[in-house]
Write a structure and sequence with these properties.
Number of strands: 13
Strand order of the largest sheet: 3-4-5-10
Shape: globular
Distance between the termini: 27 Å
CATH architecture of one domain: 3-Layer(aba) Sandwich
CATH topology of one domain: Rossmann fold
């Protein structure tokens, strides 16, 4: 589920590479992902267009539920649909797992913790701003996976995913790395919310996918296994902006806007459980990942320029 999305695309490619038959389920067309073009006709790739908010039947051994309306504008303008994707989507995916006796990995979010991140802390209950709508939906979906595990014996695992970056994003993607790269490549202002001192970590997408697969393949422990997946290397947002401007050779100014009231000072995953139980840690240095992501963004922009699009139409 969510196979045409940013992380889902890379997961499909990795599973096909290792010899699996992959059913890519998404409401979006597979053509929306430039990276899926290379496997569109692959004999082990099956594309299924479906909205996860409605029930479905699919015979399989493993289910990765990565479906989520992660676009900031989507969560703001369609809060009910956001919650439906999280909650009804979880119910339908869990029912499919139950009917197929399949193992399921659910892609949750590090935002469920609120301002405190720990392997032993419980997700915080936060409401009141539209930015937390997705986090509330993820918390509810996590509870559903535990309930299905307790009542029906579903073998479910939960990955709380923190900031992830890499090729495969759309140019209009609102994740901070791609957003800043595109701004810098177009010579536009690189926007930083607040002072830019807030600390974040950024995990290379292929490392993250390895973590998801390791979680799926981990032995069952008789309850829902939950781990954080992300990078533990912290960087201030202001420094990230400066690094991107430098690496793109851009002359874009870095502009600070008003700080968001719900923007936490620090969000860094505790990777103790992932390291101990899965033997997983990310290994791609940020500088290397940024270089490869910049190359990808430049390629997409060049394709649009060659199509004779105006500057305004590039985005």
């Amino acid at each position: 589920m969510g196979g045409v999305g940013f992380i889902g695309t890379h997961l499909c490619l990795k599973l096909i590479e290792r010899g699996d038959v992959v059913y890519c389920v998404d409401i979006r067309d597979k053509a929306c992902s430039p990276l899926l073009r290379q496997v569109a006709q692959h004999p082990r790739f099956r594309y299924v267009r479906h909205n996860i908010t409605t029930p479905f039947g699919l015979r399989c051994d493993e289910i990765y539920n990565l479906a989520a309306p992660t676009c900031v504008q989507y969560s703001k303008s369609l809060p009910v649909e956001t919650l439906k994707v999280c909650m009804l989507g979880a119910v339908n995916a869990l029912d499919a797992a139950h009917n197929s006796h399949a193992r399921i990995v659910y892609a949750s979010s590090g935002s469920v913790y609120g301002p405190v991140v720990s392997d032993t802390s419980q997700p915080a209950a936060e409401t009141g701003t539209w930015r937390l709508m997705l986090a509330d939906g993820k918390r509810a979906a996590e509870a559903l996976h535990r309930a299905y595990g307790d009542e029906y014996g579903i073998d479910a695992r939960i990955a709380r995913i923190f900031n992830t970056y890499g090729p495969g994003c759309e140019l209009m993607d609102q994740r901070v790395v791609m957003k800043m790269i595109v701004e810098a490549l177009l010579g536009k202002e690189v926007v930083v919310n607040g002072s830019g001192e807030q600390l974040r970590t950024f995990c290379w997408v292929e490392d993250l996918v390895e973590g998801l697969i390791s979680l799926m393949e981990a032995p069952s422990i008789g309850q829902v296994r939950t781990v954080n997946l992300g990078s533990s290397h912290e960087i201030p947002i202001r420094l990230l902006a400066e690094k991107i401007v430098e690496m793109t050779g851009s002359h874009s100014p870095i502009v600070h806007t008003e700080a968001r009231p719900d923007d936490v000072r620090r969000r860094t995953p505790d990777l103790t459980a992932a390291r101990r139980d899965l033997g997983w840690m990310p290994h791609t240095p940020l500088a290397e990942g940024l270089r490869r992501t910049i190359d990808y963004a430049e390629m997409l922009l060049d394709e649009k320029r060659q199509a004779n699009l105006s500057w305004a139409e590039l985005l």
